Amino acid sequence: MNLSSLKDFLEKEKLPQFRYRQIVKNYYSGRYLTFDQMTDLSKDLRKTLSKQFSLLSVSESKIISDKNTQKALLKLNDGQKIESVLMDYDNWLTVCLSSQVGCPLACTFCATGKMGFIRNLTSEEIVDQILYWQQKVYPQKISRIVFMGMGEPFLNWDNLLEAIKIINSKDTLNIGARKISISTAGLANKIIDFADLKNQINLAISLHSLDQNFRQSIMPVAKQFNLTELKKAAYYYVKKTKRQLFFEYALMSENTTLADAKKLADFIKSHHLFFLNLIPLNPIKRGLTPANKNQQQQFIKEIDRLKVSYSLRRSFGKNFAAACGQLTTK
Ligand code: SAH
């Protein structure tokens, strides 16, 4: 909801200040789908508000689900569409947020990258994805937020930070910084800026290869920020924040030789705060080839042998294209 127009409206109607605070509190409670359900407001006010405002800036246009994952296609006020995902990790509800409509980075293995870039999301559109899911699961609470949906969060810097303030603040969504994770394709300059903010938010970097030529062939942004610069930014981050830094590595047939495992292990082990997230590559149209069972096993065995601290990410929603890198509205 656009809170500044709400404020203007209430002032114009000469309504007392506390009404504003009450409506805002109701809004962030994630309890209501419509103003009409806010029975602590007068009937007349509810009616007027319904006419003048939409409670959320996103509306459901389609939803599909399996046991642990729900994916929603959400329509924005200008008719653009984004996807947003809710995952249930043994009753820990995690929302995967989009930060842009499409994405300009064009990673060759990512479905969003194939759509091109349409526009940045506003902070309201980012936050309202959470409220959309919160309403569905109420009274259960959303416990974790990951910026791993459509778009590159660091290219929508101001709105990202504004949204995080709202997600994090006690008066609004009150989700702790340690429960929020941001994933970046590796914009070294922004990694440094982010480290300087010195907050408790988790950061993940999409690494996928330690070979500059291969990496830039699948992630064009690596031409702008090469591995040397990216590593420098990563060391800066851990030095400044003393927080763990996560590296995502999707298992493809092209990046899973034993030599790749060795290079990866050397890098991850070069700092005790570096941590590796291995992800099975999810197939997309015109994308790259996932590592086969054998390649995966060999690679993971080598990573184990080299005593790297890592986790193998479970893939959610793969059956209906709701997994990492499969989000597209085209
Ligand atoms: N732009 C950001 C966040 C969005 S993607 C980034 O690049 O990090 C979230 C994660 O999914 C990233 O680690 C990305 O590299 C990964 N990803 C993209 N396509 C994928 C695919 N087809 N299979 C598995 N992971 C993928």
What key attributes describe this structure?
elongated; binds S-adenosyl-L-homocysteine; ten-stranded mixed β-sheet; 12 helices; 330 residues; alpha/beta; two-stranded antiparallel ribbon
Task: Give your account of this protein's structure.
There is one protein chain. The chain is 38% helix and 21% strand. It is built from 12 helices and 12 strands. The chain has helices spanning 3-12, 17-29, 43-52, 111-115, 123-137, 157-168, 188-197, 212-218, 221-224, 227-241, 258-268, 293-305, and strands at 58-65, 69-76, 81-89, 92-96, 100-102, 117-120, 144-147, 180-184, 202-206, 245-251, 274-280, 310-312. The strands form 2 sheets. A 10-stranded mixed beta sheet has the order 1-2-3-4-7-8-9-10-11-12, with helices on one face. Strands 5-6 form a two-stranded antiparallel sheet. The radius of gyration is 21 Å and the shape is elongated. The model has no long low-confidence stretch (mean pLDDT 95). S-adenosyl-L-homocysteine binds at residues 109-110, 148, 152, 183-185, 206, 248, 250, 279, 281-282, 284, 287, 324-325.
